[in-house]
């Protein structure tokens, strides 16, 4: 191809893609080609021209990918106004009902759309300002619709019509934590703990079963402590989009903003705040604490494990708990020497406020059950609702009707605007017990929340509750009636979560406080304060100082911990040197450590040398290390502590899962409690890094991303900086908004192959027309024919068959040789 022909072709392409829906007529006299009568510019005569036929295409709406997979889209000739307003037949995409249903059009807009092709295609272009442009080189149909025709969307939220239930599949999520403790004197102990979820998705339904188990063995002891497997609940649920609610059937827990939690077997229909736009969603609980060593942290709700992981020594914060969790959480910090620190946290929530005219509700019915899955008591019915009366006022309340136990609650919420939000409620309980007769009592509660933007501070939650001696929760009643247990009746509860930023001092302060008193057992307390400050000393920038202190009182046992850390960054991103000092009761620990992350940011590690003294014990020294890494098939942690006089220990943990669908199967890291996930498909290309490299596609081109938020607008992308040289991603970002528990599926447009020059000749020794399109069997465009059959091909593989198309229906097929030499021209025979 001559230089002149190349420049003319480039000019033609520039003109085409700078037009917007206009026809173009070409003067072929300017083309420096030996065969001017063998030129096909049909595909260039209209913006986005495509030959009639069926194509497998992804959908893109206003710059964002939509839909769960590729769609078969047929292009049919339809009369349009072409150049100079002349009527011409041009191929146009046939937009079907299933495509329109995921575009998020307003209902009135959808009802007013006209059709063509005997009602089989919807005329989306009748909406003013709408554009539909096919991009074969990206296997994408680009749709642009003005926002005026669409439902409300934001950068983090899409309307229900754009939510995706995912595909059918099964899953197995697991979390394993194992350790060996070797005391200086005494017997060795080996422990293994595991928990997770098995499940199956069918359409919009999710079937789940949570499991947990443990095994403990002590050397020289024939009686081992084991609880090999316990299914804590079995249930099924689905989203009801029109009601912004979840329907659940089976074993579950009451998660109420008014009443205390208890177990039951039955059915529930309840509003889900996660289906609301982000500014209306609830508060997700956060737990802070201090680990003295490489410690295991376990969070339980009604005996069910919600969180189980190993953390390095120092302060920690657990922020990824489900916002739907309500009630008291039991927290255990299990140190490597076997010492356990326990405390309880009450899951606070933002005061009950609802938009004007909006109703949020919970309807539950069934029978209560114990830890062994046995039902007990009569059939009950529980209701809860909140109604927004105005921008400022909300009324709410609820009932529990269960034969000999009944409860009634009523409250009011007030938006104080500049002063925050406040709610107050009162609950009356009525219980009839065989041995104690009738008991009734009241419980009062006050809740407050406020964000002080001008002061960079917020009271996430502050609350007070007082319950009379004879007031009973449903769980109190069940324990009293069936187990003669009258303990655990709450008296007073104070709780607060506060955060403050001091930007002028590069300092942040956090406070968490929980104080619970009971009528017939000892108090429970938890205090935690954390101060972080960044500073510059002797020219060294970003030196950080952390001061943390906590006090926990659980079943009459006090535990006070004070922790201080100074962290000094090393030059050229070579990690940090830390000094830690801690005091636990009368025991003091001093530690010097080194922390760093790997170059790919997928792993971190630290090494420490520590001394311990005090508490009527001899001084001891220890060496410890911690290593954590994200791998394509599991998140793994390994830790070890070697002590000269105290307990030495070795630990390992792994968190991952297996997801199996009709599209294929993949092991993956993360994934816990059967949560939402996205299976990504790179069309059989292995080793493609996704989600910052945390996910790498397997040998079938599949990977699973597990850090997906339900009902959020999630973007997942290929890490282009880590792609091998022979892999090209023409579509590197996909979007999803998945319902809870969904297994989403998205396909990336990825080409793995070589690049080469070729001369394509027909059987009669002529060439395909100038401008003919070269594509693979999937419809992906690989190149364009220029003068004398010359073409530059990309993304080709040995022995691959390719198509050459021109005109309305003409095409021929050729085959790539089994050896590709990029520097030499391939001579290909194309047969029609």
UniProtKB/TrEMBL annotation:
BP GO annotations: pilus assembly
GO cellular component: cell outer membrane
Membrane-topology descriptor: Multi-pass membrane protein
Annotated Pfam families: PapC_C, PapC_N, Usher
PROSITE patterns named among the record's database cross-references: FIMBRIAL_USHER
Record flagged with keyword Transmembrane: yes
Alphabetized UniProt keyword annotations: Cell outer membrane, Fimbrium biogenesis, Membrane, Signal, Transmembrane, Transmembrane beta strand, Transport
An example molecular function term from Gene Ontology annotations: fimbrial usher porin activity
Domain PapC-like C-terminal: 761-813
Keyword Signal included in the entry's annotation: yes
Domain PapC N-terminal, first and last residues per copy: 25-178
Subcellular location: Cell outer membrane
InterPro entries for this protein: Fimb_usher, Fimbrial_membr_usher_CS, FimD_plug_dom, PapC-like_C, PapC-like_C_sf, PapC_N, PapC_N_sf
Family assignment from sequence similarity: Belongs to the fimbrial export usher family.
Protein name: Fimbria/pilus outer membrane usher protein
